[in-house]
Amino acid sequence: MVATRRCVAALLLVAVSCARPSPSTAGSDPRETERVKDPNVISMAELRDPVLAGMDAEKAIRYLRPSFFRTTGPQSFSNQSAGQVQISHDYGPLQPLSQLSATTPTLLVEVRYLTANEAQARFGINANGGPVIVLLNSKQ
Q: In which domain, by residue range, is 88 found?
């Protein structure tokens, strides 16, 4: 009886150890880290996806990260543009979102999303309390 319990316990221990990957092999595949997407960054590889061929930058970004365009509404009754998404090319002056349609995704190196707080820290009061999508045409 005791031998049977020990045998079952040993088999259970072997089965559990085989089911879990060892810490040394977990994450060792370099392709595994490429699959992890930063929710606030669109990489050049993603921008070169053939699915995006023929799309302008706005449609491509909406396809890849629709959350970039979510707003909570105006933060001010006197300024209706407050809280709206704006864009910046290479951290230059802020521009209206409509400027995205004049850009093609293949010309971009990276697209970054800045939250309202990050945008306020980077652009000051020009950010109007809203998020900013930064289009990088060259490496910063």
A: 40-136
